[in-house]
histidine kinase (Liquorilactobacillus ghanensis DSM 18630), 473 residues
Amino acid sequence: MKPIKIIKNFAADFGLIFVIQSIIFWLFINLGNLKNSDLFDSKRWLFLVITSFFLSMLDIARRYWNHQQQQQKINLLSKKLQAIIAGEKPQHLLLAPTDAYYQLAQSINQVQSLQRDIFKHYLTQQRGYFSLIEYLTIGVMVLDQDQKIYLSNRAMSDLMGREMNLKGQLYANELRNYDLSHLIELTYQTKKDQHTELKLEFNNKVVDAHSVFVPVSHHHFLVMVLLYDLTELKEIEQMQLDFVSNVSHELKTPITAITGFSETLLNGAMYDQDALPQFLKIIQQESLKLTALVEDILSLARISTNTALSLNRIKLRAYLTEVLQSFQPELEKKQIKVYNEIAEDFVIIGDDHKLRHVVNNLLQNAIKYNDAGGSVWVSSNKKQQIWQLIVRDNGWGIPQDQQERIFERFYRIENSRSRQTGGTGLGLAVVKEYIAAMKGKIKVASQVGVGSEFTVSLPLITDGKRDDVREKV
């Protein structure tokens, strides 16, 4: 309480008490038939003044003590509200139910509990939000209205080639890419979303960039930058274009030959007994090339759409003997011997159809790119968790600088003898795709004039009790 207020209260109490005491004395004198002069006795006046003074002092002390108690409780309530506003966690106020501030204290406690629940919910949502952004495969960066970084995820750092989660830093100092910075600047200027496709020069990645204007309130906004990596898609598109171009080129050669020689025959060459067999043979050879090319292309398409494995239990030696029967005319024609070195009891579990295509192609190449009277060896072994099929020949061999490329689509060895065989350049590419579908690998070791050895390594499946495994002899 202020001194002036204390003095005013004291004067009011003193006057009131003095008047009340005077009235009481007056009544007492009148009722007691005392002389009026007694009322004005100086001793009685002094008594009234002294008692009024002490009673006023006691009342002021009582008021001051009550005021201090109330002020203390108000200070406690105020401090708790300040602590709640500051995000602290003060203890609940416990007042007696009869206290004047009991209901107010209970309300503040309830506000604190509600604020704590809201904050927990907010933290949970914020963690979920940040976790979602962090694990997105697209690059995300959020900027505030002062063009400073608010947050950025790992994908953005990977795309930009440096740490981008630099809160409080100006984005223009960190991006270091003119096209992307210009896109963001347009968003700040126009307050509209921007979109473009751009290339990041430092890593040659192609990204689909979105700069999104996000209004938060009437006076506040954010800008969200989204980068989606298109590099792999662009590479696939280019591969598709290259594939179509290569297919068109490869198809054009036999089709042109068939068309040209058939037109020549129709224009009168069919009556030339010397030219007729020669032209028909060329048309047949080109037709076979065209058929082989179409079959290889269809095989590639089937592999990409059917990656599921149909497992069978295969006795590999008998399986290879069966496959070799289809090559007997070619083997007899070129007098090539095939040595089946696979053990009788060698049994594997694998996809019969995919494995047959691999074996067919490797045997066909071993025969096709071999001299008359040559040899082919087929063997197998098991190593820890894999089994291997080895096809070796003593044929023409493959130059060292071309061995890494023979599994590329449409690639053919650059020598005259290989060109004369009329391969499509897709055979080994198809083989590699089939082996990859079976979770395996293939490698080659070769020397020109000595021969080639192809080694196929596939996972060893030993669970013979599986329901999806069928017996295949």
Summary: The mean pLDDT is 80. The chain is about 55% helix and 20% strand.
